[in-house]
Structure to design on (392 residues):
């Protein structure tokens, strides 16, 4: 699990708006244009690292360094968040 | 009726429609927008007497498709993309045998373009160059070049102050506009507006629309309201990413790639930084007009 990496899909764009990280759809039809997301601080942290090509282990290490959590919790959080990002179609698992 | 060429001014962009040999243009939707100024873009019209579609699957790269059926407007399918030689295009196919047109295809050549019109009946010579839905798609594409965009909304001019009301259809945009009209304000439009961000101030402008018989108007935007009907009137300011994304959800855009999606987002963010945005609940009464006026925007 620690070595799992992700590739950002082309159907969403990640950007900063008013100091917050948002995800907006890039679509070829009008049906999916309202799937807009504002990420919380931890979510933005994880999504941005996934977008930079970091694997789950590296993301967990970064979470431990930035927040007061143990590594097991950090890895579980990163894994859970990444799983949801993949389910929503933002990323594809690259291994 | 008017002979080509004609120049139509939309939100400050002047579009010249020309044809050789000259065509007779009907003056239905754009009549009040015709001007005699210099033009920003020229569209040369070519009439094609073909029943076949103007394009096939192999000669283009499609990046956005829309399909519209069962509304009060003619059924149609539209798409934007690039031709095989790299030119941006807009194509519209109509499915209604009663219409005089089979399809439209507008191919941009840098700044200007060529509009191909396939007519169903060879005797039909009178054409509205600003035909639905080409009008909205074309304006949306042109506004993007000026960091500007279209939005579903109503806008009123209250003594030089523009107030924009946006929501999904059926929420009360037109109702709100009429409330303001009853209190002496002018309705700029009650359905779709062009927002210009590139002229020093944020302005809202009407565009030619079917059945409106309108003339060109615009106003500096002083307040934006995300409206919903409510049993009590209320107004609550919002800001930041939440405000930008709520506004974005009601705009018209074709985010064909990450760059254009982010560019559009940044245009919306520019508006939300410069014009205060509020969530507004209202009962259908003139009281809401007084509440907004008391904000002293």
């Amino acid at each position: 699990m620690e070595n799992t990496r992700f590739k950002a899909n082309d159907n969403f764009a990640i950007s900063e708006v008013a100091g917050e990280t948002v995800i907006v759809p890039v679509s070829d039809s009008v049906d999916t244009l309202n799937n807009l997301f504002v990420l919380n601080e931890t979510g933005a942290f994880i999504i941005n690292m996934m977008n930079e090509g970091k694997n789950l282990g590296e993301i967990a290490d970064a979470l431990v360094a930035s927040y007061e959590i143990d590594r097991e919790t950090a890895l579980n959080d990163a894994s859970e968040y990444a799983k949801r990002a993949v389910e929503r179609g933002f990323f594809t698992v690259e291994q | 009726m008017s002979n080509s060429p004609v120049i139509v001014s939309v939100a400050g962009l002047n579009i010249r429609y020309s044809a050789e040999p000259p065509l007779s243009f009907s003056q239905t939707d754009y009549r009040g927008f015709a001007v005699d100024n210099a033009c920003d873009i020229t569209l040369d019209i070519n009439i094609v007497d073909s029943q076949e579609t103007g394009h096939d699957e192999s000669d283009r790269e499609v990046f956005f498709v829309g399909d519209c059926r069962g509304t009060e407007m003619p059924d149609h399918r539209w798409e934007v993309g690039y031709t095989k030689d790299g030119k941006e295009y807009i194509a519209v196919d109509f499915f209604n045998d009663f219409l005089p047109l089979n399809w439209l295809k507008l191919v941009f050549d840098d700044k200007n373009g060529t509009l191909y019109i396939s007519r169903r009946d060879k005797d039909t010579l009178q054409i509205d160059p600003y035909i639905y839905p080409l009008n909205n798609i074309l304006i949306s594409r042109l506004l993007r070049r000026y960091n500007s965009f279209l939005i579903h909304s109503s806008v009123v001019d209250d003594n030089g102050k523009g107030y924009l009301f946006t929501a999904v259809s059926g929420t009360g945009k037109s109702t709100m506009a009429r409330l303001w009209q009853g209190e002496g304000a002018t309705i700029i439009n009650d359905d779709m507006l062009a927002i210009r961000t590139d002229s020093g101030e944020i302005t809202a402008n009407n565009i030619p629309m079917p059945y409106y018989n309108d003339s060109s108007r615009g106003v500096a935007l002083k307040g934006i309201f995300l409206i919903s009907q409510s049993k009590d009137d209320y107004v609550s300011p919002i800001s930041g990413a939440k405000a930008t994304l709520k506004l974005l959800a009601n705009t018209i855009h074709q985010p064909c790639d990450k760059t254009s999606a982010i560019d559009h987002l940044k245009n919306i963010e520019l508006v939300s930084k410069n014009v205060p945005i509020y969530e507004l609940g209202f009962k259908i009464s003139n009281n809401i007009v007084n509440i907004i006026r008391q904000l002293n925007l």
Summary: Residues 258-274 of chain B form the longest helix (17 residues). Chain B has a mean pLDDT of 86. The first strand of chain B starts at residue 2 and ends at 3.
